[in-house]
Design brief:
65 residues, 2 helices, alpha+beta, two-stranded antiparallel sheet, Alpha-Beta Plaits, electron transport, 4 strands, iron ion binding, single chain
Length: 65
């Protein structure tokens, strides 16, 4: 699985960071999403999917390989 984030679409709600701080962060400068891991561990799959669904702006995308 691979993640992508659209920083221009991100509204900085932080739901992803709250759900998985080891995968997502927020830029100190803009407040928008920063991917810490583009390819998170497979065992985190359910949590990653939940974080992507929780994004209020739809800035996150998960590509299943």
């Amino acid at each position: 699985m691979r993640l992508s984030a659209d920083e221009e679409r991100c509204v900085g709600a932080g739901q992803c960071v709250w759900a998985l701080p080891e995968v997502f962060a927020q830029s100190e400068r803009t407040g928008t999403v920063v991917l810490l891991r583009e390819r998170p561990a497979r065992e985190r799959g359910d949590q990653v999917r939940a974080a992507v669904r929780a994004c209020p702006s739809g800035a996150l995308r998960l590509i299943e390989d």
